[in-house]
Design brief:
Length: 492
């Protein structure tokens, strides 16, 4: 039997606030800071402590909910979500359940079948857990786990979709688009390798054409698009095989092993009532007035979809180019600054996009630098693109110049002038050089005259070599074509 997938996605995104959700401890990079150095009695869960809601976290959460077209209930309530886990200091997590911050939103994504609107069921605030490191003891001392509470209490936003996704490609497209939204809003760094955004797809399969919802599994804490796509595909294949063999899919949470390329069971999946939710007695209801909501809405930046459409419309870029530029806010800003640095009547957005996403990205990847740290300001990249498009230097020379710009931070015109890299376009000089090359290679000329037209490209290479790669290709080709035509007709 053929099956189709029904997939909903839960995304946990740490909010980029200065302090934690319910205390004044600083939010730090848990992959870099010494363990358990940013912890206080509140986020350590000591008895008798009282939490206080982080106003900036609420503001950031509102930004996301509004960007995702959610309705904002005027009253939000925090609840205690009770479950035991070693890195949950209090033995419960402060979260939102019955009255979340945002409901009934949507996010539009692009799929192979065209645009697709994914419904957002809820957006709610909670606190993150600590971090466990599992290891094996020395000298056969057995397995053990270390607990780091630096991350405990960090503001966490959970975004839950309806089961509107059906393929691994859909899931990836949603993840990419949502991450871009969070980064454009400035509320999340998007560093998946650091765990600041984590994806958890809920997956089931059903016979094609059926409307039933079968038993689902949840993949936990996927922190790369590759893992999200591959893990989802594996689970679809695994569940389909179980149903086809007459078996029963178990409702459980599973983990993804990148090394083994498969999902592994972790624990039986809890139902909501197993968490014994009840209102958090130490926090009052969170009331969001219409003035506050509208103030946040008015301050929203241009979102990725709108920016992408504007890049296509105003700059004549392809959808592919616009996607590359818009995925990272810093890249989009850099590109627009580079365009603005060129004269209005001589702007080359497509050429700039190519230089930015091609050669400059290559240099950044090879060096491990970020665009913000690169020594090539937008105006310098704009000047380089203009030198190439106006024929002052060749594309090949432009790559060499960009490498020098990247190393030194100097302007392209300085490098071109200092190293004598300007393209040779003197027609009479190139015509004389073409005649010299033909005269110096009579055997190759005879081969061309005998009918082997590809020898003309070899002559082109010889002329370009004499010009040290700086000859204008169009002028060289025209000079060679004229010289060879004269010989074909018996001229000198």
């Amino acid at each position: 039997m053929e099956y189709e997938a029904v997939i909903g996605l839960e995304v946990h995104a740490e909010l980029a606030t200065a302090s934690k959700m319910f205390c004044g401890c600083a939010v730090v990079d848990s992959t870099q800071a010494p363990p358990n150095t940013y912890v206080c009695p509140i986020c350590a869960g000591l008895p008798g402590t009282l939490p206080v809601i982080n106003a900036q976290a609420v503001n950031f959460a509102l930004r996301v909910a509004l960007a995702l077209n959610c309705a904002i209930p005027p009253l939000n309530v925090f609840a205690r979500k009770n479950y035991f886990y070693p890195d949950l200091p209090k033995g419960y997590q402060i979260s939102q359940y019955e009255l979340p911050l945002g409901v009934n939103g949507w996010l539009e994504i692009e799929t192979a079948a065209g645009p697709h609107r994914v419904r957002i069921r809820r957006v709610h605030l909670e606190e993150d857990t600590g971090k466990l490191t599992h290891a094996s003891g020395p000298h056969g001392g057995g397995d053990y786990s270390l607990v780091d509470l630096n991350r405990a209490g960090v503001p966490l936003l959970e975004i839950v979709t309806e089961p509107d996704l059906h393929t691994p490609e859909d899931v990836r497209a949603y993840g990419v688009q949502l991450r871009a939204v969070l980064r454009h809003l400035g509320v999340n760094a998007g560093d998946m390798d650091k765990g600041v955004i984590r994806f958890e797809p809920n997956i089931s399969v059903r016979p094609v054409g059926s409307a039933e919802l079968r038993t689902r599994t949840e993949l936990k804490n996927l922190n790369s698009f590759r893992a999200l796509e591959r893990g989802t595909q594996y689970e679809i294949t695994r569940q389909s095989a179980i149903w086809n063999s007459g078996g029963q899919v178990l409702q459980e949470t599973r983990g993804w092993s990148e090394a083994e390329g498969r999902t592994l069971p972790q624990r039986g999946k809890e139902h909501a009532h197993d968490y014994r939710y009840f209102p958090e007695p130490d926090l009052p209801p969170l009331r969001l007035g219409p003035e506050q909501v509208e103030a946040v809405r008015a301050a929203l930046p241009e979102l990725p979809a709108a920016r992408r459409a504007r890049f296509e419309r105003d700059y004549g870029l392809s959808r592919y180019d616009a996607d590359l530029l818009v995925e990272e806010p810093a890249v989009a800003e850099y590109f627009e600054q580079a365009v603005a640095a060129q004269p209005p009547d001589a702007r080359q957005p497509k050429a700039l996009a190519n230089w930015l996403t091609g050669e400059l990205f290559r240099l950044l990847n090879e060096s491990g630098q970020t665009l913000a740290a690169a020594r090539v300001p937008p105006a310098h990249l704009a000047a380089l693109a203009a030198l190439v498009t106006t024929g002052v230097i060749t594309t090949s020379t432009g790559k060499t110049v960009l490498e020098a710009m990247f190393r030194t931070g100097r302007a392209p015109a300085e490098i071109v002038a200092e190293q004598g890299l300007a393209q040779v376009s003197d027609t009479s000089a190139i015509e004389a050089l073409a005649e010299e090359v033909l005269a110096a290679h009579p055997a190759e000329l005879a081969t061309f005259l005998a009918g082997k037209a590809t020898v003309e490209q070899w002559f082109f290479g010889q002329v370009m070599r004499r010009l040290r790669g700086q000859g204008n290709p169009q002028v060289i080709r025209a000079a060679l074509a004229a010289a060879l035509a004269r010989r074909q007709t018996g001229g000198s």
